[in-house]
Structure formats: C-alpha cells, structure tokens
Amino acid sequence: MTDGTDGLVTPGWCTVCEQRVPDSMAVAYVETGSGPGRIVEACVRHARELARSPAAPSWLRDDLAALDTGNSGTTA
C-alpha cells in the first residue's frame, strides 16, 4: 500500500456503520468448529471505540498503535 499502513487499513465493510468505508480494519476473528471462520471489520473510528472495551483483544490495540506510528511492525 502507498499510505504507509502496510495492510492494516483497506477499503471494506464497517460492521458498526453498516456500509462500505474507505478505511476498514479487522476488529475480531470469528472461529468456527467446522468451515471457514470470518473477519469482522470496522472503520478506524469505530475500531478505536471498540478497542476501549475491556473485552477487546490486545492485538487490536497493538494494530491501532502501529497505525498511529505509521509502523505495521514489519521490516522491509
């Protein structure tokens, strides 16, 4: 990507806005007993709100911190 987010933010569907957004990111991974799981996405604004929940996964806060610093945690 050219915006420096290294794939953390892409166009997609915000589960809170219930519409396509230019800045969605994963906020949850749903695993199933059989068959494929799914990725739940939200716009960055809603991802920040969801990350404030005590039940939010720590990786979501880490992803937002990486987004804020412009570093995805990978080296090229």
In short:
By secondary structure, the protein is α+β, with helices and mostly antiparallel strands.
How would you characterize this protein structure?
The protein has 76 residues and is α+β, with helices and mostly antiparallel strands. Helices cover 26% and strands 30% of the residues. The chain has helices at 44-51, 58-69, and strands at 10-14, 19-30, 38-43. It has a 3-stranded antiparallel β-sheet with strand order 1-2-3. The longest helix has 12 residues, at 58-69. The chain is globular. It starts with 9 loop residues before the first strand and ends in a 7-residue tail after the last helix. The mean pLDDT is 88.
Q: Outline, from the CA principal axes?
A: globular
Unreliable stretches covering 5 or more consecutive residues: none
Rg measurement, Å: 13 Å
Work out the helix count.
Answer: 2
* Percent helix: 25-40%
Secondary structure topology:
Layout: E1 10-14, E2 19-30, E3 38-43, H1 44-51, H2 58-69
Antiparallel strand pairs: 1-2, 2-3
Helix pairs in contact: 1-2
Question: Which key terms come to mind for this protein?
Answer:
76 residues, 3 strands, alpha+beta, 2 helices
